[in-house]
Design a protein that fits this description.
two-stranded antiparallel ribbon; Serine Threonine Protein Phosphatase 5, Tetratricopeptide repeat; DNA Cyclobutane Dipyrimidine Photolyase, subunit A, domain 3; alpha/beta; 3 domains; Rossmann fold; 471 residues
Length: 471
């Protein structure tokens, strides 16, 4: 039952009425605070929390290297938090539905509680478990299944989606974690986290992650509070790569260490929070897109673009590697790609610039870039990643036009990226403004920095010609 406490918020009083244990299945919801599946399980009986590392059901979409680094530390944090509640985290590996079904048989569990997910592989696993699985909403501002068009379909245009959910906002208040979690009479066996080898071995490419990131629920809640302190300048500062103007909540939200509604309510009382709230709603929107179009990460939202002639062959491969390694000769692009590799994250404005450069300047299939981001981003999210790439590529259902080609040199100057470039491209550290944005044009390119792999005008004309060929 729920009881109002003497202090703000709600306190959950739990008394288990059943002796059969119940399973709490964690996925991208690695938290105890505002965790409806946990609260339901805690009222239902002794709880067996479990996380299954499933590299099989997702197929090509198994989590990438940067996410694995984050997952290791997030699971360690979650296990510690559960122990403080009198519980523990059981780790299993294999196809998720099979692993959960096996655990039901081993423990005699009465049922399984989990938060609802919308990635196609998670929906397949949920379906395989059938009526043994009890799903709860909790990873979105509002339940996605209840936000549909007049014909009952998920929205495909964000502006329409945003308008449709206004009557359902603000979201419910976040719920606290239970004070304690009843343990089963007997714990099942589980894997050791270290045996999963989620952390990179030699060479260790994750050396730059720890200074920027602290995975786990406590850090996520602290990050939300810190963002509330600067949200009033967010609409302006978020576009300037040299400033720390982003929320930097995306990896915490992706791994479910903090709920969207917790972030929403953390921003209460701030008059200039609208842009930040729309960013939260965008994540909900992309979940609806991949529910309606499960293969959106692999197929064009606009079938016309199936006929676009992407570059292939040795020259395209060489250019793709230059893009991956931040050696294109375009400072803002190279800074972003190096930030991605070294820190597992990239400023959102620069994500658009680098993505546009790959698709429009290099005429390389957006899916190649999407997969590189998937492996390198600590916040790689199937819905957000695929919808964002198709928006910039012009191939999506709600997308920028292919003919809209971002000019990286102009963008760099417009958004004052000089100090950002100097940080991530040390070869250019001594180049002054305004030459930092285009050293070639100012005749001061250091020998250690590469020449542009293609001119902007040439790239633009080639992209427009490829697009025109479709018509």
């Amino acid at each position: 039952m729920w009881a109002r406490s003497r202090t703000p918020g709600w306190v959950l009083r739990v008394s288990a009425r059943m002796t059969e244990p119940v399973i709490l299945w964690f996925r991208q919801d690695l938290r105890l605070h505002d965790q409806p599946a946990l609260l339901a399980a805690a009222k239902d009986g002794p709880v067996i929390p479990v996380y299954v590392l499933d590299d099989e059901t997702p197929g090509d979409w198994r989590i990438g290297g940067a996410q694995r680094w984050w997952l290791h530390h997030s699971l360690a944090s979650l296990a510690e938090a559960l122990e403080k509640k009198g519980s523990r985290l059981i780790l299993r590996r294999g196809p998720a539905a099979e692993a959960i079904a096996a655990l039901i048989e081993e423990t005699g569990a009465a049922r399984v509680h989990a938060l609802r997910h919308y990635e196609p592989w998670w929906r397949a696993a949920e379906a395989a478990l059938g009526d043994r699985l009890h799903l709860h909403d909790g990873n979105h501002l509002v339940p996605i299944d209840g936000v549909t068009t007049g014909s009952g379909q998920p929205f495909r245009i964000f502006s329409s989606f945003w308008k449709a959910i206004q009557g359902r906002l603000p979201p419910d208040d976040p719920m606290p974690a239970p004070r304690a979690i009843d343990a089963p009479a007997r714990w099942p066996a589980g894997d050791r986290l270290a045996d999963w080898r989620l952390l990179p071995t030699a060479p260790d490419w994750s050396g730059g992650f720890a200074p920027d990131w602290t995975p786990g629920e406590a850090a996520a809640l602290a990050r939300a509070r810190a963002f509330a302190g600067k949200v009033d300048s967010y609409e302006h500062d978020r576009n300037l790569p040299a400033l720390d103007g982003s929320s930097r909540l995306s990896p915490h939200l992706h791994h479910g260490e903090v709920s969207p509604r917790t972030v929403w309510h953390a921003l209460d009382g701030h008059a200039d929070r609208d842009k930040a709230l729309k960013e939260l709603a965008w994540r909900d929107f992309t979940s609806g897109v991949v529910k309606a179009l499960p293969r959106y990460g692999d197929t064009n939202g606009r079938p016309r673009y199936d006929a676009l002639t992407w570059r292939k062959g040795a020259a395209a491969d060489r250019d793709f590697k230059a893009w991956q390694h931040g050696r294109t000769g375009y400072p803002i692009v190279d800074a972003g790609m190096r930030q991605l590799w070294l820190s597992g994250w990239m400023h959102n404005r620069v994500r658009m610039i680098t993505a546009s450069f790959l698709v429009k300047h290099l005429l390389i299939d957006w899916r190649a870039g999407e997969r590189w981001f998937w492996d390198c981003l600590v916040d790689a999210d199937y819905g957000n990643n695929s919808v964002s790439w198709q928006w910039i590529a012009g191939t999506g259902i709600d997308a920028n036009m292919f003919g809209r080609i971002m000019a990286p040199l102009t963008q760099s100057e417009k958004f004052d990226a000089g100090d950002y470039i100097r940080r991530w491209v040390p070869e250019l550290a001594d180049v002054p403004d305004p030459a930092i944005h285009d050293p070639d044009a100012h005749g001061c390119r250091p020998d250690a920095y590469p020449v542009k792999i293609i001119g902007h005008k040439e790239a633009r004309e080639r992209a427009l010609a490829a697009n025109q060929a479709l018509y």
